[in-house]
What we know:
It is built from eight helices and no strands. The protein is mainly α. The longest helix is centred in the first third of the chain and has 17 residues.
Amino acid sequence: MTVESQQTPYSLMGGEKHILSLVERFYFYMDTLPEAKELRAIHAPDLSSTKAKLFKFLSGWLGGPDLFQQEYGHPRLRQRHFPFKVDQQARDQWMLCMNKALYEVAMPDQLRKNIAKALDDLATHMINSE
């Protein structure tokens, strides 16, 4: 049995195509919502690399191919984000964009709620400044 055929959030969401869609919608919101301007400001003007990394991370995190780890090693998300100021405002802006994106990707409602809760917890864990 392959990873993709197991009942994982990745497969329940529809696999690579839908994870890519989630990432695209997330960055669309981060790039356009006035409420996310501070979050956008801490990112590079060109989001291509950042989009690719988030897609690769989410792929493995949701139970699909572990693309991020294959390319970069263990995610160590908190450590990788230490160079950036991640405060409550940045966390909340990130979740605003992610929640909007999650509601644009077709998936069972309970799965959406579970993923949103897990990402909410992860985003809170990333806070590294006041």
